[in-house]
Amino acid sequence: MADKMTYKQAGVDIHEAAELVGDINDLRARTESSRKLLQAFGMFAASYDLSDYKEPVIVTGCDGVGTKLEVQLKYDALESAGKDLVAMSVNDIITTGGDALMFLDYIGVGKIDKSKIQRLIGGMVEYLESCNCVLAGGETAEMPGIVPDGMIELSGFCIGAVEKPDLLDPKAVTPGDVVVGFASDGFHANGWSLVRRVIEANRSEFTDEEIVSLLAPTRLYHDVVAGVRAAGVKPHAMAHITGGGLIENHERFLGDMGAELEIPYWDNDAVQKVLAHTDDEDRFNTFNMGIGWTVIVPEADAEAVCAAGPGGTVIGRITDTKGVKVRVKG
């Protein structure tokens, strides 16, 4: 009779996975300094008490890091990947005018490497602490034969809430409104299939230091949203500039309106090396082009919004003609 097999012999070590949950709990607990889960961490589902809200509207979002993750793994930038994962979902949530309350992650690996996973979660925790969002749980899946050795699957999920009267409605946008843009910290986590192709085709032009600089994590814009709130301004809309760039991310809610945008030159040497090898028009539909967040307000509020966070500047106006047009100053 053949020897009977164990789960561990099949490539999955459930005891290692259980130990990992305990190992990361101290990291995770840092995200509960202010907001806290209603019940203990580690249950089958996380719960959050919304009684502090009078008319809570739940907002949700999920995202990943895309093919940027391949470069992050190659250059051992795991903390950066964790930060990207958080920012891509949290930024989407706060475009509503609400708060990011809880975040969950999914990590798929061929074999659990506790050190690497702890570093990923360490990056997540650093960002979650800064925006007062609780790491509520997640899933680490060990899948030998499905996820190749050395690779990681990564997804993030965020749950937020907003008071119903405070929920932003892009239908409030009108021609003549001002578009205030806030600087990005790089390509963020979008357009990396093109970035990777450019670097591979022109590898001799890029130093390792330049490539690592391109891995700067997606900027969190919770400080901008808090600053806008503190100024007493309710925007007509806010946009997180991701895949599709300034054009698509505005056209999705402008309907029959449009925008004329003039953005500053993107002063980043490594970024400009990449852009030199991209199509003059396609780049505006692929990258954030140096602007990762926009706030649309009446002209009277533009100055206050520009001061709401670092890198704020007026980049254009809403028009009554359908379509968004973008050009670089100068």
TrEMBL record:
EC number: 6.3.3.1
Positions of the PurM-like C-terminal domain: 175-329
InterPro entries noted in UniProt: PurM-like_C_dom (IPR010918), PurM-like_C_sf (IPR036676), PurM-like_N (IPR016188), PurM-like_N_sf (IPR036921), PurM_cligase (IPR004733)
Molecular function terms from GO: ATP binding; phosphoribosylamine-glycine ligase activity; phosphoribosylformylglycinamidine cyclo-ligase activity
GO terms (BP aspect): 'de novo' IMP biosynthetic process; adenine biosynthetic process
One Pfam family here: AIRS_C
A GO cellular-component term linked to this record: cytosol
Keyword vocabulary terms for this entry: ATP-binding, Ligase, Nucleotide-binding
Associated pathway: Purine metabolism; IMP biosynthesis via de novo pathway; 5-amino-1-(5-phospho-D-ribosyl)imidazole from N(2)-formyl-N(1)-(5-phospho-D-ribosyl)glycinamide: step 2/2
PurM-like N-terminal domain span: 57-162
Catalytically driven reaction(s): 2-formamido-N(1)-(5-O-phospho-beta-D-ribosyl)acetamidine + ATP = 5-amino-1-(5-phospho-beta-D-ribosyl)imidazole + ADP + phosphate + H(+)
Family that this chain belongs to: Belongs to the AIR synthase family.
Identification of the protein by name: Phosphoribosylformylglycinamidine cyclo-ligase
Organism: Sulfuriroseicoccus oceanibius
Lineage: Bacteria, Pseudomonadati, Verrucomicrobiota, Verrucomicrobiia, Verrucomicrobiales
